[in-house]
Amino acid sequence: MSVRDVVFPAGRQALYERNRYSPAIRSNGLLFVSGQVGSRPDGSPEPDLEAQVGLAFDNLNAILSAAGCTFQDVVDVTVFVVDPAAHLERIWKVVAEHWGDAPYPTLTGVGVTWLYGFQFEIKVIAKLPDASVG
C-alpha cells in the first residue's frame, strides 16, 4: 500500500487529526481537497452566513497554498448548501468575490439538510503546478 501524500494547512493539523481525516491528498498530478467549511481555528462554525462562506474560502485557500496552488488551479468544485432556496443568493454573492475570472471550474451544487452546524461547504479538485495531467 502506498503512503498518502497529505497536505496540511499551517496551524490546523491538530483539528484534522482530531476529526480523523486529511485536508487534502496529492495524487497523479491532482490535489483532492476535503470539503471546507467556515470554521474558526477551534473548529466551531462562524455564525454569520456571509462570514462563514468567506472563512470557508480562507480555509480552502490555506490548503491550496500549502500545496503550491491557487483557486485558479481548481478544475472541479462541489458545493453543499443547507436550504439553498433560502441561502443561495446570499452565499453566491460571497462566492463571486473568490471565484476569479472565466474560464470557471466545473461546478456541482447539492442542497442538503445538515452540515454539522454549518450552512456551506466547498470541496475541490485542483491541478498541481507543473503536473502533466491534461
TrEMBL record:
A GO molecular-function descriptor: deaminase activity
Any one cellular-component term (Gene Ontology): cytosol
Entry-linked Pfam families: Ribonuc_L-PSP
Superkingdom of source: Bacteria
Identification of the protein by name: Endoribonuclease L-PSP
SUPFAM superfamilies given in the database record: YjgF-like (SSF55298)
InterPro entries reported in the protein's UniProt record: RutC-like_sf, YjgF/YER057c/UK114, YjgH-like
